[in-house]
Design a protein that fits this description.
about 325 residues, mainly alpha, Na+/H+ antiporter like fold, about 80% helix, about 0% strand, globular
Length: about 325
């Protein structure tokens, strides 16, 4: 099967992905399930643990993550900067509370098992306290709940989690046992990382406030629709790359770019240009995630998976 998949033409691979999406989503809708479930199941079916049409799902996920980036950009377009500032209590209040309380509860459970020391339990608690932004936002968007009060609060928590990635990653080395010199170097590196992230965010804000509108005004003068589409992708991918370079989330960079363009006269045109790419890349992302699911492990722990799903649903 692996030899056969290597011989499949380049054109046939996207054909398989498109066919999987077209077939799986109507079936899921008929069963009253989310499209995310359809994409995950389709990914399992065509992935290395299914029919084996794709043997390296990580390459697909790397490209498909751009769908999550574009989703955050479009959400940012719906939020003006003044509205985002009004959400600061939810972002830093509910966000901090969720992360701290969830991490503490999970770390406590890990310690209670007796299998972890306090450092490992703390790191595990922090890691498990973070949510999958792509899945949560996609579900809220599908149900039309993103603009409701609880949807906005959930989004504020997810946004804080993305913002906290750099400090959390910098915190992990400090928990490792070592001498004072090593700790001093680590603190210096941490301060440098935080400073770079702050400078990148400031640069993005300045560019968004003073450069993007004149830039799009000049391109609109050319009256070339394809150039505006290219410019929209340039802004999204450029801001995402800037945040990734300094160790932040790509989605956070795209979200900030969207917020800074929310008051632009070209907002609706940008939204129309990005929307088709967003939908297809998100579908590809979830299928890529499905390809990484090893059904042998799932079947070996089937009752544990079912019990976890029931507990999460009832909660």
């Amino acid at each position: 099967m692996n030899t056969h998949s290597a011989e499949v033409s380049i054109l046939a691979l996207p054909l398989v992905l498109l066919a999987a999406a077209v077939i799986s989503v109507p079936i899921a809708r008929f069963a009253r399930l989310s499209a995310i479930v359809a994409y995950l199941v389709a990914g399992v079916a065509i992935g290395p643990f299914g029919l084996g049409m794709f043997t390296r799902p990580e390459t697909i996920i790397t490209v498909a993550e751009l769908g999550v980036v574009m989703l955050l950009f479009l959400i940012g377009l719906e939020l003006e900067l003044s509205r985002l500032l009004a959400m600061r209590r939810d972002i830093f209040g509910l966000g901090v509370a969720q992360l701290v309380l969830t991490a503490a509860a999970l770390a406590g459970l890990a310690l209670a098992t007796g299998m972890f020391n306090w450092r490992a339990a703390f790191v595990a608690g922090l890691a498990l306290a973070l949510s999958a932004t792509s899945i949560a936002l996609r579900i809220l968007e599908e149900r039309g709940h993103l603009q409701q009060q609880y949807g906005q609060r959930a989004f504020a928590i997810l946004l804080f989690q993305d913002m906290s990635v750099v400090p959390l990653l910098a915190l992990v080395p400090l928990l490792a046992p070592g001498d004072a010199v090593k700790e001093h170097v680590t603190l210096a590196e941490t301060a440098s990382s935080v400073g770079l992230a702050g400078a990148a965010i400031a640069a993005l804000v300045v560019a968004g406030r003073y450069l993007l509108n004149p830039f799009f005004r000049l391109l609109a003068w050319t009256d070339a629709r394809e150039v505006m589409t290219a410019a929209a992708l340039l802004v999204v991918l450029g801001s995402a790359l800037l945040m990734q370079t300094v160790g932040m989330s790509m989605a956070l960079g795209a979200f900030l770019a969207g917020v800074l363009l929310a008051e632009s006269t070209y907002r609706h045109e940008l939204e129309a240009d990005i929307e088709p790419f967003r939908g297809l890349l998100l579908a590809l992302f979830f299928m890529g995630v499905g390809m990484t699911i090893d059904m042998r492990i799932v079947m070996a722990n089937l009752w544990l998976v079912i019990a976890a799903a029931v507990v999460i649903t009832l909660r």
